[in-house]
Backbone:
């Protein structure tokens, strides 16, 4: 069988190791579609897996990478044929199923979404799981009934991947966006994306009051912990927050006060096992609602040989916007 380049994670005596190596095609896992991977991206979860800072990987050896875009090479699935352009993210790739940082991937056809018209494979991975998660969050706020006339919306982790795309989406939809960031030096960048106000994340990092002054009608949070608790305490009556990340921790030191006294809703955003109809809607909306010029502004490109070092940079908060990984 042929071999191909891949970023492989192995169990070590202490933790894990990651290396760019040759992977034997015979070791690919079961699936009914084989894809030539052309582009991937780097998400916070990828950084955790590559560095071993959290037990993201649950089988070894593992090919890292939770999302890809590419071309179908071979298929026994009724919906896919060779030459089809596809996007795949989540479903345990890079965790329990061999992932995306490789020249080939074998997956279940039911996991795939057709690359939307108007998007290139590179565009799709400039969006990536982070941007797709941001879109799922926007959809949750819309389903709640939130509109721009209801008031400002806040985005935490604003200079990161989810935050950057969320700001671009919300501003284009007409919302007054408040961007929360620990990197105030990125103010010009955030305003170019469409942020109307910038606040320091320290305003949201202290112990949360049960209820604080109402500041926003909704928000998208990728930070968690005390930040999310503060967001909830400052959300207006009948507002909503979409929670999609845990960069600051998995705890939520809040109270029931925002929920039972202001009717605030907290929406959990799961990008990994999200049903296919919701995925298709999210990717369709990304193709139509995301400003391609802004996407280009927030994206930089690296090669497969740079993925491991870039993973550490993501965890250290040294990366703004999106990173696309050229696989070929």
Residues:
């Amino acid at each position: 069988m042929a071999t191909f380049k891949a970023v492989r994670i192995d169990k070590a005596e202490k933790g894990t190791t990651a290396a760019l190596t040759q992977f034997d095609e015979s070791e690919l896992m079961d699936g009914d579609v084989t894809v030539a991977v052309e582009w991937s991206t780097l998400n916070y979860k990828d950084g955790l897996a590559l560095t071993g800072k959290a037990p993201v990987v649950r089988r070894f050896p593992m090919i890292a990478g939770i999302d890809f875009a590419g071309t179908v090479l071979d298929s026994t699935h009724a919906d896919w044929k060779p030459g089809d352009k596809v996007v795949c993210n989540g479903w345990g790739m890079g965790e329990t199923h061999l992932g995306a940082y490789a020249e080939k991937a074998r997956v279940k056809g039911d996991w795939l979404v057709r690359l939307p018209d108007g998007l290139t494979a590179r565009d799709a991975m400039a969006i990536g799981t982070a941007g797709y998660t941001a879109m799922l969050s926007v959809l949750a706020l819309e389903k709640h009934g939130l509109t721009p006339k209801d008031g400002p919306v806040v985005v935490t982790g604003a200079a990161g991947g989810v935050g950057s795309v969320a700001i671009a989406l919300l501003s284009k939809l007409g919302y007054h966006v408040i961007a929360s960031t620990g990197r105030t030096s990125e103010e010009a960048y955030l305003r170019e994306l469409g942020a109307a106000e910038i606040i320091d994340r320290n305003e949201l990092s202290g112990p949360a009051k049960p209820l604080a002054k109402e500041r926003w009608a909704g928000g998208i949070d990728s930070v968690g912990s005390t930040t999310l608790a503060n967001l909830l305490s400052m959300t207006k009556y009948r507002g909503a927050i979409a929670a999609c990340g845990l960069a600051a921790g998995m705890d939520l030191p809040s109270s029931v006060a925002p929920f039972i006294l202001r009717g605030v809703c907290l929406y959990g955003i799961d990008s990994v096992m999200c049903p296919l109809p919701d995925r298709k809607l999210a990717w369709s909306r990304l193709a139509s609602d995301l400003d391609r010029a802004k996407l280009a502004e927030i994206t930089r490109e690296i090669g497969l040989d740079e993925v491991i070092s870039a993973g550490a940079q993501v965890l250290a908060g040294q990366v703004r916007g999106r990173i696309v990984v050229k696989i070929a």
About this structure: The chain has a mean pLDDT of 95.
